[in-house]
From TrEMBL:
Protein's cellular compartments: Cytoplasm; Mitochondrion inner membrane; Mitochondrion matrix
The organism's taxonomic lineage, starting at the top: Eukaryota, Metazoa, Chordata, Craniata, Vertebrata
Family: Belongs to the folylpolyglutamate synthase family.
Keyword Isomerase: no
Broadest EC class assigned to this enzyme: ligase
Highest taxon, organism lineage: Eukaryota
Gene Ontology MF annotations: ATP binding; metal ion binding; tetrahydrofolylpolyglutamate synthase activity
Protein name in UniProt: Folylpolyglutamate synthase
Principal subcellular localization: cytoplasm
Positions bound to Mg(2+): S112, E182, H210
Free-text function comment from the UniProt entry: Catalyzes conversion of folates to polyglutamate derivatives allowing concentration of folate compounds in the cell and the intracellular retention of these cofactors, which are important substrates for most of the folate-dependent enzymes that are involved in one-carbon transfer reactions involved in purine, pyrimidine and amino acid synthesis.
Catalysed reactions, as listed in the record: (6S)-5,6,7,8-tetrahydrofolyl-(gamma-L-Glu)(n) + L-glutamate + ATP = (6S)-5,6,7,8-tetrahydrofolyl-(gamma-L-Glu)(n+1) + ADP + phosphate + H(+)
EC number: 6.3.2.17
Length: 539
């Protein structure tokens, strides 16, 4: 099969080897097996069967948990902090985990998605579990499920469900003192909500996302998020839109769940001077306040009964020491500075733009000459790319570059970053749509494209413009940086030959004193970039 669009045909012929996979190590075999759960027939049948009956999802999760040799009663011993939200739930979890680790507790942390390696989703004491541990526990859980599938109509859990079960298994086996669990999507019917007795729950900022699953209004989304509330379990939320807050209050009342709204970060009395955050961006202050409340409530139950909350030195240091890659992250490699933020909703993109304009301006003031600004963008799923791109216009980029979430166009593509739920054709079509939206925002019209690379690997509008489309992340980064990032200039990385006419367009990049690149629109895109520019992230 080839699509009617000849441009996409050229892409697909060029990328025909991209699904090839380098194996040979035990951990690679485990990850390859894990990836089969993205598309196996039983998983797709589960989705179809449960779409109209979401309550079946938790029922099915209990069954898988038991088949893996675990019980919901065992999960009660993990002393869980359960966190959901639309924007900032991962950062809130990262703050919380770091704070409690600073008290000497052995922490477990389950999050999604991963940026570079799937092991990032399951952390012990802030670090992704090692390859040996991942492999050991993966086969323990997978083996039990495989052995029992014939008695259950051949069913196996889908990718996220499996990883959730694996995380619970790891945390129990590794005897963590507590587990910080980030919800996948929503809350009420998310498979993490099999948890019966968390110690405390949190809801970060709410907005519109995953509308096909959660609903298309803030009220419907708030109802789903409030589904993690449990009877007599304290819960905290940041300030929310009025309608969303009303729904959360109603949900809390229904479930006899005490709910509090976090104060502003400025309202805390700190014993060690002003509060500093390890994560950049004004919006992180609300996440930090939520993390302080979650941490303090957990500590009160564990070992600090009574007393008014003060931001003690350990709490303050925990906030300052927090790291969470891919969120408002800045990396400088010589003349090239990368600004990475996985914003993928309207509200998170607004926060990203605010952070980038402020931070990039500071860097430009320190530059000794001209600075070229480049946007590297991709968006996936049902998200409104055109609306997000419109928010980025005030950043005044010299180039807007688009590529799919494909790390590189070679057969040794990283197994951790393969996604079999979206076809390459759909990914490439989305990039062309994004490029077209950007041009329309600039009043450049909807022009056709010509091949950018001689073997048909990329595209650029016929008329001179500031937009380019590449077939993979590596080829986009190589063109943008023009050999000026020593990490990307590694001789082991293949370099695609670009037409001379297109290379001429790079004169601005070659002549600039510095190149500033904002990478945004997708956490998967950010992860693919980090794989190339931060080699330590792949170890």
């Amino acid at each position: 099969y080839l699509p009617a669009n000849p441009t996409i045909q050229m892409f697909l012929r060029s990328l025909c080897k991209i699904d090839g996979l380098a194996t040979g190590s035990v951990v690679s075999d485990a990850i390859c097996t894990l990836n089969t759960l993205q598309t196996n027939a039983s998983a797709l049948e589960q989705v179809r069967r449960e779409r109209g009956h979401p309550q079946l999802q938790l029922q099915a999760m209990r069954g898988y948990l038991e088949r893996a040799g675990l019980t919901v009663e065992e999960l009660d011993h993990l002393n869980i902090i359960h966190v959901t939200g639309t924007k900032g739930k991962g950062s809130t979890c990262a703050f919380t985990e770091q704070i409690l680790r600073s008290y000497g507790f052995r922490t477990g942390f389950y999050s999604s998605p991963h940026l570079v390696q799937v092991r990032e989703r399951i952390r012990i004491n802030g670090q992704p579990i090692g390859k040996e541990l991942f492999t050991k526990y993966f086969w323990q859980v997978y083996g039990r499920l495989e052995e029992t599938k014939d008695a259950h109509r051949g069913t196996m859990p889908a990718y996220f469900r499996f990883l959730t079960i694996l995380a619970f298994h790891v945390f129990l086996q590794e005897k963590v003192d507590l587990a910080v669990i980030e919800v996948g999507i929503g809350g009420a019917y998310d498979c993490t909500n099999i948890i019966r007795r968390p110690w405390v729950c949190g809801i970060s900022s709410l907005g519109i996302d995953h509308t096909q699953i959660l609903g298309d209004t803030i009220e419907k989304i708030a109802w789903q998020k409030g589904g993690i509330f449990k009877p007599r379990v304290p819960a905290f939320t940041v300030r929310q839109p009025e309608n969303a807050m009303d729904v959360l209050k109603d949900r809390a009342k229904e479930m006899s769940c005490p709910l509090w709204v976090c104060p502003d970060l400025e309202d805390y009395q700190a014993d060690c001077g002003p509060l500093h955050l390890g994560l950049a961006g004004q919006h992180q202050r609300a996440n930090a306040s939520l993390a302080l409340q979650l941490s303090h409530t957990w500590l009160q139950r564990r070992c600090l009964p009574g007393g008014k909350m003060r931001a003690s030195c350990r709490l303050v240091l925990g906030l300052a020491d927090t790291e969470w890659p891919g969120r408002n992250q800045t990396l400088k490699h010589g003349a090239v500075t990368y600004f990475l933020d996985g914003a993928h909703t309207m509200r998170s993109m607004q926060a990203c733009v605010h952070w980038f304009r402020e931070t990039a301006a500071q860097h430009e003031r320190m530059a000794s000459g001209t600075v070229a600004r480049v946007l590297l963008f991709n968006a996936t799923g049902e998200r409104d790319s055109a609306a997000m791109l419109k928010l980025l216009l005030p950043c005044h980029f010299d180039f807007a570059v688009f590529c799919p979430n494909i790390t590189e166009a070679i057969a040794s593509c990283n197994a951790d970053q393969q996604n079999f739920n979206v076809s390459v054709e759909n990914m490439l079509t989305r990039c062309l749509d994004n490029e077209r939206s950007w041009r329309l925002h600039h009043g450049q019209g909807d022009n056709s494209t010509e091949l950018l690379i001689d073997n048909g690997l990329s595209l650029v509008p016929k008329k001179k413009a500031d937009t380019l489309v590449f077939p993979c992340i590596l080829s986009a980064l190589q063109w943008i940086t023009q050999g000026r990032d020593p990490v990307l200039a590694d001789s082991s990385k293949s370099v695609l030959e670009v037409k001379p006419s297109i290379m001429a367009k790079a004169a601005l990049l070659c002549n600039a004193t510095e190149i500033h690149i904002l990478i945004t629109g997708s956490l998967h895109l950010v992860g693919g970039v980090l794989k190339h520019i931060d080699p330590a992230s792949s170890k």
